[in-house]
Design a protein that fits this description.
By secondary structure, the protein is of the alpha/beta class. Helix content is 36%, strand content 25%.
Length: 346
């Protein structure tokens, strides 16, 4: 399978409006310091950046939610912020994107995750400074997160877990989220980190990139046959129903184990498994930062709108092609995604 028919893609895209997705994960604030570089410092062999401007963007799980909202969906966002200026900025930015920060659990025990990027006016990154704690959140915060998810799950068509290893996705939180989703037959999609792979057992779909899949399986993915074998092995390793490996310039590989079990992650005995390769559709790559956020947001909305998993993956492949054309974490609009679908039909 090489793609998604433009007419079907448009029909699914039209169904995004108002579909509700619940996103749980590590909230981040991306802070950009932009300046001009004309000389090298006499103190060390590094560029001197003459500051011109700064701006902030939503990152991590917040960027997933922003993509859901930008594509016309409704998103409940649950995560952790510190009681600091970065946390207040993140809340304000969330509101500006149409996201309600009522699901944010605020704590004085850790900073809001903030990534400060120093970049030139030509979008060349010079340095990055991270402000964060990657320690697991304490029990009282785990309970608050799980309760926030439970309070919102009844309205969600799909749950997305966006794990960046910043402490929110713990064994306790995942256990409660998966159990609550299974009870309501709501599928759970996970953008993973390999260190937490055992926590996702029972998820409907896990979406590693090819580097993560290689690390989890101690193998290399260089051909479609290798991608197929990796997806099969990853499915067994993660204990999930389906796997989508994002594969950079090679596109995506999908192992569709079916969503009949809707959130249980367990495939009925004897059920068919399908496998598909989606070649990349990007025309120009500016930055891959945040592309995985766009992919899983599009997958979630497409499934909520009634698409099959291969259809959702085909649409997400187009969304990824749009996302990498932007610098830094970015959202994709319905018009942009529709244009990509039309372009592929030419």
């Amino acid at each position: 399978m090489t793609g998604l028919a433009a007419a079907r893609g448009r029909a699914v895209l039209a169904g995004f409006t108002g579909r509700r997705v619940l996103v749980l994960g590590d909230l981040m604030l991306d802070h950009f310091l932009v300046g001009r570089v004309d000389r090298i410092s006499p103190e060390a062999p590094v560029p001197v950046v003459e500051f011109e401007r700064e701006h902030h963007r939503l990152g991590g799980a917040a960027n997933v939610a922003a993509n859901v909202a930008a594509l016309g969906g409704t998103c409940d966002l649950v995560g952790v912020t510190g009681r600091d200026d970065a946390g207040r900025t993140l809340c304000d930015l969330a509101l500006a994107h149409g996201l309600d920060p009522a699901g944010f659990v605020s704590t004085a025990d850790r900073p809001t995750t903030r990534k400060v990027r120093v970049v030139t006016t030509r979008n060349q990154q010079v340095a990055r400074v991270d402000y964060e704690s990657d320690a697991p959140v304490p029990g009282v915060v785990e309970r608050a997160l799980a309760d926030a998810v439970a309070d919102r799950l009844g309205h969600a068509a799909v749950v997305v877990v966006s794990d960046y290893l910043k402490g929110v996705v713990t064994a306790t939180v995942m256990k409660r989220v998966l159990a609550a989703a299974q009870a309501r037959h709501v599928p759970v999609l996970v953008d993973p980190k390999i260190r937490h792979l055992d926590l996702y057992r029972g998820a409907s779909l896990v979406t590693p990139n090819h580097v993560e899949a290689e690390a989890a399986l101690a193998l290399r993915i260089r051909t479609p046959d290798a991608a197929r074998d990796a997806a099969r092995a990853f499915r067994e390793r993660a204990g999930c129903a389906s796997v989508l490996i994002t594969w950079g310039e090679h596109g995506m590989w999908l192992l569709d184990g079916g969503l009949e079990s809707r959130g249980t992650g367990r495939q009925p005995r004897g059920a068919a498994v399908s496998e598909s390769h989606f070649p990349a559709v990007a025309r120009e790559v500016a930055d891959v930062t945040g592309a995985g956020d766009t992919v899983i947001a599009t997958l979630a909305l497409a499934l909520a709108a009634g698409a099959t998993l291969p259809e959702a993956a085909g649409l997400a492949n187009h969304a990824a092609g749009c996302a990498v054309g932007h610098f830094g974490p970015a959202t994709v609009s319905p018009a942009e995604l529709a244009a990509s679908l039309e372009g592929s039909a030419e």
